[in-house]
């Protein structure tokens, strides 16, 4: 594909070279990655997708910990279990590992949810960029516009031919105009036309404007960080003053501060303690054995339920496949009408 594109460019360049003296070829390019990073809608949606991916990763880690616990429990209790129970435990662990691998593939595989949702996320922005490039190319008479972030190799690209900021400006303006009245839109279009004329007359003006905006954002972030740090320090000082005041008042009145008071104020006499101890005699081994038996029973039931569900799903899939095959054969054997 790259070779085809390069051959096409060379061919077109050769054709245009014959008319280079009479008519210059105007070429521009965009950087799709840069545009996506600076479009607010994409940034917000990307942040939400990253939060989803982080949640999936946490689920995977939790599942790994659960499987590790099952393995450790089997290793510890292997000597106390029968061969049948050991086989059930190993089968359950294997089932859990298979389930984990399936989940990882479903979320992060080549055709997983992450890749699919990224494509869905990028598509509307790509459509907006394509429309904006078409408008800019027609208005400013560009002959070619390439994408720097694509598979096409660009060995050199002069910044003055980069129209990425213009594309971002067109998309941002379109979003703002959707919230304006007809009169406001007309006024804004006149204002935008003057701004574009100024930028065309002085290309470095746009770079300076962007640099000023970046500095402004950096200053605002610095102020916000300082304000947050000051509020945190103020809260810590207030808490410390309250603690010192409480200790001072406690010293005057002879009371114990709240943080030094015992948590459990219930008292039990030795006689009552002895009565409690003597009233019920519990065998720890019996309790542990009962808990282990219940745990094994619960795991066995859960494993049987999962196996049953898998078999039902397989049967349903098999039936659907057979029905589809049967319908295809019927369609194939259906007599053709002239």
Topology summary:
Layout: H1 2-17, E1 27-30, H2 32-37, H3 40-77, H4 83-108, H5 113-140, E2 144-147, H6 164-177, H7 182-201, H8 203-253, H9 270-279, H10 284-333
Helix pairs in contact: 3-4, 3-5, 4-10, 5-6, 7-8
Structure description:
Keywords: Coiled coil, Signal. Belongs to the Skp family. Residues 258-267, 285-338 have a biased composition (Basic and acidic residues). One of its GO terms (molecular function) is unfolded protein binding. The structure is a single chain. The protein is mostly helical and 338 residues long. It contains ten helices and two strands. Among the domains are: 24-201, no CATH class; 202-254. 77% of the residues lie in helices and 2% in strands. A two-stranded parallel ribbon has the order 1-2.
Strand arrangement, major sheet: 1-2
H/E series? HEHHHHEHHHHH
**What is the 3D form?**
flat
- Give the rounded overall mean pLDDT: 76
Into which percentage range does the β-strand content fall? under 5%
Brief synopsis:
Residues 10-22 and 263-281 have low confidence and may be disordered. This protein is mostly helical and 338 residues long. The two termini are 44 Å apart.
């Amino acid at each position: 594909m790259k070779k085809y594109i390069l051959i096409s460019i060379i061919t077109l360049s050769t054709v245009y070279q014959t008319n280079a003296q009479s008519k210059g070829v105007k070429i521009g390019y965009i950087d799709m990655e840069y545009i996506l990073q600076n479009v607010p809608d994409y940034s917000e949606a990307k942040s939400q997708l990253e939060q989803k991916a982080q949640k999936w990763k946490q689920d995977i880690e939790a599942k790994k910990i659960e499987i590790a616990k099952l393995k450790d429990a089997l290793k510890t209790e292997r000597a106390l279990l029968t061969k049948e129970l050991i086989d059930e435990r190993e089968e359950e662990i294997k089932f859990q590992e298979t389930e984990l691998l399936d989940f990882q593939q479903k979320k992060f595989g080549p055709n997983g949810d992450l890749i699919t949702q990224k494509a869905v996320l990028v598509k509307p922005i790509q459509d907006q960029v394509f429309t904006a490039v078409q408008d800019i190319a027609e208005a400013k008479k560009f002959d070619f516009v390439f994408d720097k972030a694509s598979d096409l190799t660009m060995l050199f690209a002069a910044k003055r031919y980069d129209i990425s900021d213009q594309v971002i400006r067109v998309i941002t303006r379109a979003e703002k105009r959707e919230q304006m009245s007809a009169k406001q839109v007309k006024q804004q279009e006149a204002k935008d036309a003057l701004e574009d004329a100024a930028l065309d007359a002085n290309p470095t003006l746009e770079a300076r404007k962007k640099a000023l905006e970046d500095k402004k954002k950096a200053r605002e972030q610095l102020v916000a960080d300082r304000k947050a740090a000051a509020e945190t320090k103020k809260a810590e000082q207030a808490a410390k003053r309250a603690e010192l005041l409480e200790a001072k008042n406690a010293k005057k009145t002879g009371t114990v501060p709240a943080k030094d008071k015992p948590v459990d104020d219930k008292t039990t006499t030795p006689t009552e303690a002895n009565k409690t101890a003597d009233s019920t005699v519990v065998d720890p081994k019996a309790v542990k054995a009962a808990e282990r038996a219940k745990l094994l029973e619960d795991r066995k039931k859960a494993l049987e339920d999962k196996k049953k569900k898998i078999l039902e799903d397989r049967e349903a899939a098999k039936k659907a496949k057979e029905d589809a095959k049967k319908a295809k054969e019927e369609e194939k054997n259906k007599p053709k009408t002239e």
